[in-house]
Design a protein that fits this description.
D-Maltodextrin-Binding Protein, domain 2
Length: about 110
């Protein structure tokens, strides 16, 4: 599990990853880097998730699944709201991440 940013992951990112790890009995490996470097690795299956700040109209929304979805992120008060990017086609994983996505919007879980 990856946090996309060139600085330390934000508390909401850490809470989100910890929540997913708790459900999956996983141990997140947190790496930082730019979305431009991490998203191609995600798309090729080298990463499970990229968490970061993405514009609502990012061109990546056609190549990966972004959660929460862009309709919710467009209305977010933050200029670049937090979102999780996951590889398309992995429906079980997408559903699991979707259940935890409200944490990125500030919900407690």
């Amino acid at each position: 599990m990856i946090a996309s940013d060139d600085q330390r992951p934000e508390p909401r990112q850490r809470r989100f990853l910890a929540s997913i790890a708790s459900e999956t009995d996983g141990r997140p490996l947190i790496m930082t880097g730019s979305a431009e470097l991490l998203l191609p690795k995600l798309e090729k299956g080298g990463l499970d998730i990229v968490v970061g700040r993405f514009a609502a109209e990012t061109p990546w929304q056609k190549r990966v699944t972004l959660l929460p979805d862009s309709r919710r992120r467009k209305n977010d008060r933050e200029a670049l709201p937090l979102a999780a990017a996951v590889r398309n086609g992995e429906n079980g994983w997408i559903a699991l991440v979707h259940r935890h996505a409200p944490i990125l919007e500030g919900a407690n879980r």
